[in-house]
Amino acid sequence: TSAPDCICSVIVAKQGRGNMAISNVFGSNVFDILIAMAIPWALRYQFMGTQQLIKMEADGFATAVFILALVMIFYVACVAIGKFTLPRKVGYLHVGLYGVFLVYVFVSNLAVFKA
After folding, report:
1. pTM of the shown model
2. 3-state secondary structure 33-99
3. Above 60 in pLDDT, residue 49?
4. Which of 56, 59, 66, 55 minimizes the C-alpha distance to 110?
C-alpha cells in the first residue's frame, strides 16, 4: 500500500494541501501496522492455535526504534522551526536520510557481515 499512498500524498501536496499529505503519510502507516499486519496474525492464531508460534528475529530492533525516534524529533523540529511549512531542501534531506537508513538496514542484515 505504500506506492499508492505515496502517489496520493504527492498529488495532494502539489495541490497545496500539505496537511492532507502529511496526514495521509502518518494515517496510512498506522493503518498498515494496526490493521493490515494485526488482522492476519490474529486470524492465524484464532484458526490454527498458538502451538506453533511464529518466531520473529529482532536483531537491530532497538536501533531501528532509536533511529525512528530521532527522525520523528527531527521532523517535528523542522515543522516547528518552519512554522508548519517544509522547504524543498528539507524534503530532500529527509529523502537522503531515508536512503542512509536503508543502506544501514541492508548492510546490517547481510549474513556476510555477521560474525
Report:
1. 0.54
2. HHHHHHHHHHHHHHHHCCCCCCCCCCCCHHHHHHHHHHHHHHHHHHHHHCCCCCCHHHHHHHHHHHH
3. yes
4. 59
